[in-house]
Amino acid sequence: MNFELDFSQLNLVSDPDKITQIEIRSVIEDEDSRFEWMEGFPINEAYHTVCGYSNKKRILLIASNIPSSKRVILEVKVASKGEIKSYYCKK
Fold first, then answer.
1. If both were cysteines, with which of 21, 28, 79, 85 could 61 make a disulfide (CB 3.0 to 4.6 Å apart)?
2. How would you classify the pairing of strands 4-6 and 70-78?
3. What are phi and psi of 72, to 5 degrees?
4. Residue 42 — pLDDT band, cuts 50, 70, 90?
């Protein structure tokens, strides 16, 4: 599903990893990124994680939800080793 991205809930100003909106977009648009949907919730109430390889050659973990026709980006960080195993490398 392609949704317009909404960054209004995300604060990148104090981000020590200097993650940009362009880098976030590169992960979400990458067909190899792993999307995890919380089961049992309608799409507009559920929180989602996206884990994928960015244009800056690092793996990001992105939390978002879709309350309407936009994907609202809530939180983003460089994934830890454990998160990479859990979200990106699982079969």
1. 79
2. parallel
3. -90, 115
4. low
Q: Residue type at 88?
A: Y
Q: Which of 29, 7, 30 is nearest to 19 (CA)?
A: 7
Amino acid identity of residue 43, one-letter, is I
At 29, give phi and psi (nearest 5°). -85, -10
> What is the per-residue pLDDT across 56-75, written as a single tens digit (0 to 9) for each?
999 999 988 888 888 999 88
Residue 88: name the closest of 32, 24, 48, 20 by CA.
32
Strands (E), 24-67: 34-37, 47-53, 59-65
Tell me the pairing of strands 59-65 and 4-6. Answer: unpaired
End-to-end Cα spacing for the chain: 21
| Burial zone of 27 (CB within 10 Å; 0-12 exposed, 13-18 middle, 19+ buried) | buried
